[in-house]
Design brief:
Elements (H helix, E strand, L loop, with lengths): L7 H12 L19 E3 L4 H16 L3 E4 L5 E5 L8 E7 L2 E5 L5 H16 L8 E6 L12 H7 L4 H5 L18 H7 L16 E9 L4 H5 L3 E7 L1 E10 L3 E2 L11 H23 L5 E10 L5 E2 L2 E10 L2 H22 L2 E9 L3 E2 L2 H14 L3 E6 L5 H4 L5 E6 L15 H20 L1
Parallel strand pairs: 4-6, 4-7, 7-17, 8-16
Antiparallel strand pairs: 1-5, 2-3, 3-6, 8-15, 8-17, 9-13, 9-14, 10-12, 11-13
Helix pairs in contact: 1-3, 3-12, 8-9, 10-12
């Protein structure tokens, strides 16, 4: 049985080095608990490309081969003694939303690389090849759709539709260019070829395990060292445009108004109410609904809003329950239109299926945790991950490590060195077992 030693200092150095590839200016916020690092690393920007080049150099220095596909997914491969067998995979993403932290995704990429190195340094030789995969654009920041790379790998996104996605870089970005498509942006970044070539064969991976921070408070709150993910919730995203009638805030009298923002406010409260009702009915907490962006036109304090655009994110471990919430919401929208004299249009961005973890991989992780004396709990991931789409082509599971106060997507996102090292060791042991099968 192999006994890999995780080089925690090396792993932490690399996490901090990767965090330096950021478009956030260095700041010190005394209101946040130390240590904090603000990271903005949007896909295909100069910082992202610099981070990719650095990651490739680190992987090649360890003796692993590296390849990229047409959308920039990066495969770090350790060839097994029987390379014809389906590989064992791990990995995550390194892109980061504006003003995020330094652990989301990156722990899974650099932890995967460290797990491979630790196994290599222990003298282990895998039968199946082992890969760490850095996915392109897990975050939806630039093209409006999350998990671009893994959707294409799993064959759940039409390549032509993907290439036609519009660049949505914030206007403040110096590299923003109006109207560019994914195809134009990726080719400018050096990733060429037909996106249809990205899809992996159904037997490419025999097993997949992703290491990730929990992005929630449960493990820390319960004093548990690791989470073993048994399933990933199903997300759906919608864009709504509410059209009313605007005018001067003083001259347009209350009885004559068709205020688009007031109607949008009712919609926001409606979907919240129905999500809460769904949880009350089920006795659980798995239904969540969020309106995270609201754009008001014309956006002046003395003008009645004539148009509002809002984005809804709704997630559940049960698609039927999620659909029931949306049906109730649609009924309320019709009532709001009639009452307020507005018109609401809906655009479905994505509606994904939940993913279930492989019982065999879950049992493998449980056995390793018990052997290591690590406390763990089986849990659902309510955030979605690239593993959701790898599950379309391979058996999957995930390992969660605690993060401070459950905070993520903020500069004060933090996981302790001890948690990172333990998660990486369990990952390494899992990869070794699965690669020996």
């Amino acid at each position: 049985m192999t006994n890999p030693t995780i080089n925690t200092d090396r792993l932490l150095r690399e996490l901090h080095r990767l965090a330096q590839f950021t478009d956030c200016p260095p700041t010190e916020d005394k209101t946040l608990p130390a240590p904090t690092t603000a990271v903005t690393r949007i896909v295909f920007t100069p910082r992202d490309l610099e981070a990719r080049a650095w990651l490739t150099s680190v992987a090649e220095a360890a003796g692993f081969s590296v390849r990229t596909d047409a959308v920039g997914n990066t495969f770090i491969r350790w060839q097994g003694t029987d390379p014809a067998l389906p590989a064992v995979g791990t990995g995550s993403h390194t892109d980061a939303i504006p003003h995020a932290g330094m652990y989301d995704g990156t722990v899974g990429v650099l932890g995967g690389l460290e797990a491979m190195r630790a196994l290599q340094e222990s003298g282990f030789q895998p039968r199946r090849s082992i890969e760490t995969l850095m996915f392109t654009s897990e975050e939806p920041t630039r093209f409006g759709l999350g998990c671009l790379g893994s959707r294409l790998l799993g064959g759940v996104l039409d390549p032509a539709l993907a290439d036609a996605l519009k660049d949505r870089l914030p206007e403040t970005e110096p590299t923003a260019r109006e109207g560019l498509t994914l195809q134009q942006v990726r080719e400018c970044a050096g990733f060429h070829g037909d996106l249809a070539s990205v899809k992996l064969a159904s037997n490419y991976y025999g097993a997949w395990v992703e290491l990730h921070i929990e992005q929630g408070p449960l493990l820390e709150r319960d004093g548990i060292q690791l989470g073993i993910v048994t399933g990933i919730a199903a997300p759906a995203s919608y864009r709504y445009v509410v059209e009313g009638f605007g005018g001067h805030a003083g001259a347009l009298l209350m009885p004559d108004r068709r205020d688009a923002l007031a109607a949008a406010a009712e919609m926001i409260l409606s979907v919240e109410r129905h999500a809460l009702a769904a949880n009350a009915k089920s006795g659980g907490v798995d239904t969540v609904a969020t309106v995270g962006t609201v754009a008001v036109h014309p956006g002046a304090v003395n003008s009645v809003p004539s148009r509002v655009t809002l984005m809804l994110d709704i997630r559940d471990t049960d698609v039927t329950r999620r659909d029931a919430v949306m049906a109730a919401f649609h009924a309320d929208i019709a009532a709001i239109e009639a009452k307020r004299g507005v018109k609401v249009t809906e655009e479905l961005i994505n509606a994904d299926q939940p993913a279930q973890s492989s019982p065999h991989i879950v049992e493998t992780l449980e056995a390793i945790c018990k052997a290591e004396g690590a406390t763990y709990k089986k849990m659902v991931s309510r955030a979605y991950h690239d593993s959701n789409f790898i599950a379309r082509i391979a058996p999957i599971a995930m390992i969660f490590i605690p993060c401070r106060n459950g905070v993520s997507h903020r500069p004060d996102e933090y996981a302790t060195p001890e948690s990172i090292a333990l998660g990486t060791r369990v990952l390494a042991l899992a990869l070794a077992r699965l690669a020996s099968e």
